[in-house]
Amino acid sequence: MEKVQTGLVIEFYSNSCLVRTKDADISCIAIKDVVVGDIVKIEIIQDSKKIKGLILSREPRFSILEKKEVLKSKVVAANVTHVGILVTPEPKTSTDFIDKWVLTANLSNITPFIINNKIDLVQNEEYLTKLEIYKNLKIDFIDISAKSNQNLGQVSDYLKGKCVVFVGNSGAGKSTLTTSLTGKDIKTNVLSNNQGVHTTSISTLYEIDNDTKIIDSPGVRDLYITGWDDKDIIKGFSEIYAFSRYCKFNDCNHINNDGCHVTEKLINGEINQSRYNNFIKFRDREEDE
Question: What is the dihedral of CA 266, 272, 278, 279, to 10 degrees?
């Protein structure tokens, strides 16, 4: 076994992690700022009990998923390509929740897509109208029932070659979907470091045969966005940002300024009212975090 190897962080604990190399999954002493999804270089340490590793360095990331707060930010996963937003009629998924994740993905070099789960339940007109908001934004959609395994093949096909994090409100079916796709019981999975059953403090990356990676991380449950700069918030609302370039004044507040192209498009229906409301709410820090 080579003394220095490159590997993928597939599990992360409080002060250690599991790194998958070409030879084996190796328990390593973690260093600061390493998370699941990171590519790292490790040095193999052979002691009397078992092979261990010491992380020497972390490779550059092409994306990070983080919770952005004003005074601090926390990276919860690295090198993610897609965020799958689970939307359900029950429990109801708010546009506030969806827009936070679309915003975060857009500002993080990550592609958002929407999974309309629980299609076995009645989807009323209000719910279908909500979905149309995001279909009009050309966001990819997949209709499934994770509970009855309906259309899960479409999810598998879509995720080929991608690294995804699923997000959803409690009861949206995230664990059921992850379990179905990975074949691992997420709620009772025994950890590789013999720390017992899977707990809410553990982040895990699952690799599937079709070159798919699924990151299950409790760190994404509560999403904070107050740390994004005011000027960045609008970039997370791509359609509003596109229209804002034609405003008369560069410092337009997009509320009551003369020559505002955004409010003009809002009035004629080219910008959805709910999307506009959330843009103003997020930008002006009116949200209750």
Answer: -50
Model confidence at 195: pLDDT above 70: no
The hierarchical CATH code for the domain 230-283 is 1.10.40.50
> What whole-number distance in Å separates Cα of residue 116 and Cα of residue 95?
13
Instruction: Give the separation between CA 33 and CA 199, rounded to whole angstroms.
Output: 21
- Judge whether 93 and 169 are in contact, CB under 8 Å: yes
**H/E element holding 281?**
helix 273-283
pLDDT at 198: 38
Q: What is the CATH number of domain 64-220?
A: 3.40.50.300
Rounded to the nearest 10 degrees, the angle between the axes of helix 95-106 and helix 273-283 is 70
Domain boundaries, the chain: 4-58, 64-220, 230-283
Q: Average pLDDT, whole number, for the chain? A: 90
Q: What is the rounded distance in angstroms from the CA atom of residue 228 to the CA atom of residue 86?
A: 23
56-60, 66-70, 182-186, 285-289: range with lowest mean pLDDT: 285-289
Give CA–CA dist 250/233, Å, rounded.
16
Q: Which CATH architecture is the domain 4-58 placed in? A: Beta Barrel (2.40)
